[in-house]
């Protein structure tokens, strides 16, 4: 198969996700998702926000298409809201939901931008959660059926597909730490959710045509233990962040490192005959979302404990050290982590890679109609450079997609953390959009690519 992204240069893109931007949660037949339900519970989101309006992108398709055209990038990565398309989770298809994505895809292609579709960016139909959510195998089957429905409508025009976005978050933040929807604290059952997510991916791969380019988007991490004492917890962390996904995709097996922390996966009732075989070799390309490295440590340091420490069932007591400098969301800035991750992951998987998300939250100020965000520009510059270095070292990385187009609903952080190239003024009823300086920086990179320059360019 010809891969939609060429190997000889890095392609540029920008990424978004349905629940974070669309709004219109009860229009045109869309049913509630687990994020509608989760955000309705007090205390789940920092500012009490939800996605009911978000950036109102469902109603402002033309405005957002104009922004993408002006940005000049070659790829737009978006996700499809399952509850818009198959509102009950299975069965009946809602054509009005598909129409929205159809218009988006046609609009992109008409302006020379290529669509990259993600089938699941965390907005599970609430009805499926009530039937067990990702703890149930039936959800994996329902996902494959939904994938077929979407592909049938868009597959003639969309060439780059991903099944899941960051299944680690869906499984472990959703079913272990309980800080993302559906907000459950089920301990080791989160490993079962992880298995069903990968199974859903594999079954979706089987129903999509062999000549479609299908991948999965993982938030793999470089794991850098703070000291020798943290070696064991580092092995456990690596198992849950990296190996539990890559082992079955590459080897068709869970390694001992995974089974030690996830004994639930030793059960023949969970990992059934044929599951691992379906997973093996099921990616034509791999998406990597990278923001920060992980530095596992033992608890008891003189620092506030890390909010994600409950997201690693089976690993034992661990903490995570975050060094300076940090972005506004508290994530360490370290671009060499991306270079290392791309190199090691390419050695492990041997399929083309795309950096499907990378970006930074900074507390932007709108002053006299201008948002100047030099920190974000520096972050993007250093991470594009790191990506190019990984390519120089032989990693077959074909694309770099910025997270994200618009300031949007940042999950449990609500609207308090902004990653956009475009500022969205939420104090104003019309949600006016203002291009930040970083938007101009990406425009210049896109223009330089057209001239055949190596990125990043400085100007
Ligand atoms: C990733 C998510 C994306 C966004 C960024 C900041 O984990 O995929 O939706 O929230 O983080």
Protein structure class = alpha/beta
What bound compounds does this protein have?
Answer: beta-D-fucopyranose
In CATH, the homologous superfamily goes by the name Glycosidases
Rounded radius of gyration (Å): 21 Å
Number of domains: 1
Number of strands: 12
Q: So how many helices?
A: 15
Describe this protein's structure.
The protein is an alpha/beta fold and 459 residues long. The protein has one domain: Alpha-Beta Barrel (TIM Barrel), CATH 3.20.20.80. The chain is 37% helix and 12% strand. The chain has 15 helices and twelve strands. The chain has helices at 18-21, 34-39, 61-71, 82-85, 95-110, 126-130, 137-154, 167-175, 189-207, 231-251, 256-261, 275-279, 336-349, 374-392, 437-450, and strands at residues 11-15, 75-79, 114-120, 160-165, 213-218, 285-289, 296-297, 319-320, 353-357, 397-403, 422-424, 433-435. An eight-stranded parallel β-barrel has the order 1-2-3-4-5-6-9-10, surrounded by five helices. It has a two-stranded antiparallel ribbon with strand order 7-8. A hairpin with an 8-residue loop joins strand 11 (422-424) and strand 12 (433-435). Helix 9 (189-207) runs parallel beside helix 10 (231-251). The relative contact order is 0.14. Bound molecules: beta-D-fucopyranose. The site of beta-D-fucopyranose has 12 residues, from loops.
